[in-house]
Amino acid sequence: MSELYVQRRAVRRFFHDPGLAEQRIFDAVRPLLRGRMHPWWGMDAVDVAIDFDGTGHMGDGEWWAADVKDHASAALLGRNFRWDGRADAKRRFLVIAQHRFGTRDYVNDLKGAMDGRVQGVEIVGENEFIKAVLRRASERG
Asked: Rounded to two decimals, what is the model's pTM?
């Protein structure tokens, strides 16, 4: 129980508006992607997987996956961030809520804390991610 208490206290202290950044992304990309966007099913895993080819099976075709975070401490997020190995996507994104991504030194602190521990994950702001998804979806038809 003590571990659960500490975890819940950390969530209240460092995570803000859980689910809002995710919902903004879903609302922005769902109309174009229709059935090719899949909310992730795992606890504390990636938030969305996008199947650009409509294969229905990750690993077949072009898949992107994103874990969306709105975390007050870049260093704490970077030290504790793990990628869910089940999300074996062509491109993997750690999407930062836009109001955090634009703050001075946040991304540098995050990259520094993740350096050498997490490979193959692109760190982007939510607006940049939405634009990239919409651009790729329009290219793929």
From this structure: 0.82
